[in-house]
Amino acid sequence: MGTVVVELLDAIGTKETLVCIGPGGVGKTTSAAAVGMMLAKTGRKVCVLTIDPARRLASALGLDRVDSEPVLASPELPNYWVAMLDPKQTFDAMIKRYASSPAQEQEIVDNPVYRNLVTRLSGTQEYMAFERLWELRESQRFDTIVVDTPPAQAAIDFLHAPSRLAGFLDNRVFRFMLKPPPLYLRPIAMATRSLVKQIANVVGADMVNDTMAFFQAFSGIEDGFRERALMTSELLASETTSYLLVSSPAPDALAAGSRMVELLRGIGHRVDSVLINRVTPTYGAYPRDLGAPDDAKRDLERLIQMREREQLVIDEWGQGLGLDGWYLLEDLATDVSNLAALGEVAIAMERCALVPFQPKE
């Protein structure tokens, strides 16, 4: 019985959400863009959503910029769309959706605390990323959404953000701030006034007043935020979502990839596919009697040995990770800065077949 060849396209071709994770500097954004193009060429309507603030997606496509609203990457690719997260625009849209009236919406977005929340609060990028993913999924415009995440730990923060936000919104202190206390707790509320005054002496009375005004204005719309966070958690854990780890054969990149595999497992997700990018090409055996210059022969020999060393490093790396195997994408030695070059990467991806993991005896 022959060996079954599992190509990368077979592994991810029917997924509705594909989350690309990986360390920095391994070509993750380019790989996500190429995966999207590969899927679009099969007839699927694809949107590549980058939530990485590095803005690499636009340069990989040869575009001046990529906006929050999906745009066609090229008129020649009617199924291939791209978008980039705009946290403030997404946050504003959430407030508009869940506010009970235009007056409540305006009161929130005009509040200085809200403006700081949008631009400075740690985690806002991740919170708005999962909201934008849900919006695109809910629109039913696309068969597949490819999510290009920030490098390393920031990607795990994005995946963990929905449950973190839901937990924060359920926190008793937060809910106490949103709603006035019942009568039997009024003495406690009165007792806190001295503490509020002390805080005001440190940060300023205006800051305290703005914060209290923000919480009062926010009251009533937190349930919508919580519901969306819980639904996104379910989406990220569903069988229609797949996780693709992108790395390179460099030992430090592989080590970072291992940590991401374990961190992902820690929050209840599993890496489904692994793409090792920028692998030295296979040159195979070559005749030694063609009269080629000695320098050329030595250079070719070095490249062959480099590929062999990379393969040993990758095989050693796979020990104990519980992976079925990986897909190797050879280095094309070209700068991907336009759709034509990206198309070459997509074609190479189409030929990627699973290299089964061979445990050492």
CATH architecture call of the largest domain: 3-Layer(aba) Sandwich
Low-confidence stretches: 183-205
| Widest sheet, order of strands | 3-4-2-5-1-6-7-8-9
Taken as a percent bin, the fraction of beta residues is: 5-15%
Major sheet, described briefly? 9 strands, mixed
- Spatial gap, N to C terminus: 24 Å
CATH class of the largest domain: Alpha Beta
Order of helices and strands: HEHEHEEHHHHEHHHHHHEHEHEHE
CATH topology of the largest domain: Rossmann fold
| Total strand segments | 9
Query: Which value, in Å, is the CA radius of gyration?
Result: 25 Å
The domain count comes to 2
Helix content: 40-55%
Label this structure with key terms.
16 helices, Rossmann fold, elongated, alpha/beta, 2 domains
Question: What does this entry show, briefly?
Answer:
This protein has 361 residues and is of the alpha/beta class. Helices cover 53% and strands 12% of the residues.
Q: In words, what does this structure look like?
A:
This protein has helices at residues 8-12, 28-40, 56-61, 87-98, 102-109, 112-120, 124-139, 153-169, 172-178, 186-191, 193-203, 205-218, 222-237, 251-266, 294-317, 339-350; strands spanning 17-21, 46-50, 71-72, 80-84, 144-148, 241-247, 273-279, 325-330, 355-356. Strand 3 (71-72) and strand 4 (80-84) form a beta hairpin. The protein has 16 helices and nine strands. It folds into two domains: 9-92 and 126-156 and 239-282 and 293-356, Rossmann fold; 97-123 and 168-225, no CATH class. Residues 183-205 have low confidence and may be disordered. The protein has 361 residues and is of the alpha/beta class. 34% of the residues are buried. The protein is 53% helix and 12% strand.
